[in-house]
Amino acid sequence: MADIANLRTAAETGLSSLFEAGRKSFATEEAIGREEAFKFFEATGLPSRRVEAFKYTDLRAAMTEAAPPAEAPSDEAARAAVAGAKGFAGIEAARLTFVNGHLVPALSDLDGLPEGVRVTPLNAALAQSDARLKLLAPVEQARANPIYQLNTAFLADGALISVAAGAKPERPLHLRFVGAGTDGFSTATRVLVELAEGAEFTLLESHEGPDGVTYQPNDALDVRVGNGAAFRHARLNREGRGAIALSTISVRLDDDARLETVNVVTGAVLSRHQIYMHVAGEGTSAVVNGAAMLGAGQLADSTLLADHAAVGGVGREMFKTVIDGDATGVFQGKIIVRQAAQQTDGKMKSDCLLLTDEGQMMNKPELEIFADDVACGHGATCGAPDEDLLFYLMARGLPRATAESLLVQAFLGEAVEAVTHEGARAALIGEIEAWLEARG
Amino acid sequence: MPAVQETIDRVRAIDLDQYKYGFETTIEMEKSEKGISEDVIRFISGKKNEPAWLLEWRLDAYKRWQTMKEPEWARVSYDRVDYDDIYYYAAPKRQGPESLDEIDPEILKTYEKLGIPLREVEVLEGIAPERRVAVDAVFDSVSVATTFKKELEKAGVIFMPISEAVREHPELVKKYLGSVVPVTDNFFATLNSAVFSDGSFVYIPPGVRCPMELSTYFRINERDTGQFERTLIIADKGSYVSYLEGCTAPKRDDNQLHAAVVELVALEDAEIKYSTVQNWYPGDNDGKGGIYNFVTKRGDCRGARSKISWTQVETGSAITWKYPSCILRGDDSRGEFYSIAVSNGMQQVDSGTKMIHLGKNTTSRIISKGISAGRSQNTYRGLVSAHRKAKGARNFTNCDSLLIGDQCGAHTVPYIESKNASAVFEHEATTSKISEDQKFYCQQRGLSEEEATALIVNGFVRDVLQQLPMEFAVEAQKLISISLEGSVG
């Protein structure tokens, strides 16, 4: 039988020549293992549906060509690009602005950071061989992922964020990623976050870009949450409708660490958000939520791996997907409970509302359990909005469309409510309302 | 919460070392050459006096099989089978008995020892009639006896070895063979299509309710052989049949391959109930020996309002790779899957089901309980999908796991694919403790904690066990009281 996987697509060949061409300009190879990462990527290629983890999101078919890495913009161009950026715009926060994957110091509050927070631009950290770079890739499984490796190979910029022990700044840090351009381009950014013992920190991320341009953002977030620290994270994907948006979070939790991460998706023609959570310490708790609102032609994939390797971890994962038009929703979740991770309490849930007959939802909630004293469960549901509930609301005089909107809002709201930061939560609920309004 | 003592004892009672059916019968056998080749296939086909079309069908399957790769996606690891080092056909030398008296007494003794009635039980007047079961006994590659044939004939039911059906009812076999599990379906099904030896054929005519339970008892006896049986059951319009299947094998140090194909066809308003107690030799506690059970079972609810129900109690086999499935093609058709899988020692189970909703208002229900003990791995793998046109499809899935000890693993891999807004799918799986409220309620009434747990759990497991026909009650008895305390709630 012919081994089809060996035939390289135009995009794969394109990526190889882009990597060759970029090699000269790439700095500090040693610290990040670029060559190794690209070798890994070349060996696996773009994952197709034959690869189990990409069964429902065929990147090989979707990425028809390799877009060239975007150049760093001039301050003026960056200013113009950011002018219309809406994600988390009204929130009182310190901001780091990335335009086309490059940090723009002129548009960033590098001098006005929240108390106890230190930010080093990634390029500077690489040039100085910053000791904190050891934080790179804290979760083993992420290192076997082609999207993550592609990010490493083409990594252009990012930031290294440290939160001092015991620091609990109220003001969040907002990472504002904006894409601008008329031709296809790609970006690769990496943000590293380290929370020292007892620190509490809120990080907001917004991603947006032009409609009608086929661009390929690939961003990664590596986090280590130290003993007793709490990391709160809200992420908003409102990329342009032509984007193929790939993102990976890999997070390691130490003793008594707390994690809250919520991802809301309205943008991109294809998005894949991967979360790798490694529970290394005892007594941790984690809330991992997602809400996706999809319209015609969109596909959103949420892939989660929760790997419990220590005693007593509590995990609550909830993913909500609303599908309009012929969109496709994908949820792949996997909870691993290793033998040592007794008394793990894990609950994973994926719910989907299909608003049309053309949409589709693919759910794959897995459990892999090696410890005998655990409470783990997963649930998945899929269906149209409940007719009884609609009837109830309509009987009170609401038109059907309004009743349906209310149900959708309540449905998605459940996932967004977990966001502790009030402003961010309100902004995300605003996104839901705006989506429903645009739908009409 | 860890398993209670009672459960641990029960699981131990069906432990590997206590495998009762591990004896071997010494009997003169006739075998094909070792290995697989066109000649071997011709030999098997010749032995069965098959028509030319079937030989062609087999040879075609063999050609395709040679281009296929053994699947590796299941969560099992084992030493690959050397397909050139096994016998594909083995049959007792004394062939074609006209009556039971002509069957080799050794074989009769074997079945007696296994508790399978090959002699038709006379029902005496005035005595409450026992429930009777018609049995087709398959010994390695051939069917050695089929009971109650005459009485079934009266009802119009055809129940015979498939090798006989090929000769006597070629039109039925030709029409339905391979129509549910195509020749090219998967590696093991294709291999089976090339070399299948015997199995049962059942046809229930329109409107007939089969007057008794039908059953097939599979026994692997000969060393270094594989068993490749093929079962085909057709329930014509408005008919009903309940079919039971049991399997055992001798204790041996090497692994033996069992690659069966079961095809069910339910036409309009028909119902097929298929129950299995799978008790192949599981190997010893160190994982030596045991059967590789690589089976393709699929039912096609072809007609409107038809129903297929799979019930399985799985305790045997070293490796299980088995996914009894339903294709819900007819409008308003229904598929059910009830399973208890107990793994122990070094056993590895990767089992589950597929419910493929194609027709309107089709419904399906999946209840799966996995219990792993020892150093075993127990995986539920299932697919529920709704096609674009499957308006109003409904599925409910519940799969629960329980671990006994800290050396084993329990895994769940469900795929839920919905392409229709009016389809409602619910899936839940737990590996959790019993509801505290329920337990408190029982303890209030004076039960100890363990008694309360056992009580609640037993009520819960009934979900699956009440689906089993009476005949399996005895075997299931051992399992009935296994508490799944980890899975309620």
Characterise the protein shown here.
- The complex is a heterodimer of chains A (440) and B (489).
- Chain A has 440 residues and is an alpha/beta fold.
- Helix content of chain A is 23%, strand content 37%.
- Chain A has a 10-stranded mixed β-sheet with strand order 2-1-5-7-9-11-13-15-17-19, covered by helices on one side. In chain A, strands 3-4-6-8-10-12-14-16-18 form a 9-stranded mixed β-sheet.
- In chain A, a hairpin with a 2-residue loop joins strand 1 (94-99) and strand 2.
- The radius of gyration of chain A is 21 Å and the shape is globular.
- Chain A starts with 9 loop residues before the first helix and ends with a helix.
- Mean pLDDT of chain A is 92; it is low at 1-5.
- Helices cover 22% and strands 33% of the residues of chain B.
- The radius of gyration of chain B is 22 Å and the shape is globular.
- In chain B, the strands form 3 sheets. Chain B has a 10-stranded mixed β-sheet with strand order 4-3-7-9-12-14-17-20-22-24, covered by helices on one side. Chain B has a 6-stranded parallel beta barrel with strand order 13-15-18-21-19-16.
- Strand 18 of chain A pairs antiparallel with strand 23 (409-418) of chain B.
Question: Can you summarize this structure?
Answer:
The complex is a heterodimer of chains A (440) and B (489). With 440 residues, chain A is α/β, with parallel strands linked by helices. Helices cover 23% and strands 37% of the residues of chain A.
